[in-house]
Amino acid sequence: xxxxxxxxxxxxxxxxxxxxxxxxxxxxxxxxxxxxxxxxxxxxxxxxxxxxxxxxxxxxxxxxxxxxxxxxxxxxxxxxxxxxxxxxxxxxxxxxxxxxxxxxxxxxxxxxxxxxxxxxxxxxxxxxxxxxxxxxxxxxxxxxxxxxxxxxxxxxxxxxxxxxxxxxxxxxxxxxxxxxxxxxxxxxxxxxxxxxxxxxxxx
Length: 203
Hints:
The chain has about 200 residues and is mostly beta strands.
């Protein structure tokens, strides 16, 4: 898809196909997608679009539509470490004008450094513009000893394109006009947690 003629996504099945293709190694760099309808994922276990091995690098226009009832159940044997509707969004990837409804992430993983967010697990130099979580993000990871997790209402962890830490002052370079309505989580004392992003922590 191009900017003037993007690939259109109008169903849960088409969205899942995007996840399948990205997770098979297609980053879709310089490729454009547009969501043309609200998507309800109720009753489906969601596999994130992209992972720490294979990121999404394209442009995703949410069209001001909502993706609702996202359920993700990360497993101990998963090769992935970043979880959300999108697992990893990497530069030059952009997601804009996309709304998230309710999201639950219930993990039994005990891996240090995992990142969890309703929209994106790991934002690695990519950009989010005019995105909102309109429902409630619920993240349950358990209190596994001294493991450190990054947990946010919208994004788990934000880094630059090389994976280096950024400061909260730099966050506006990667996220603009993004909001989260409500967020609940259980976590251990080692984890960093925030309403918008887990890391960098804003509050």
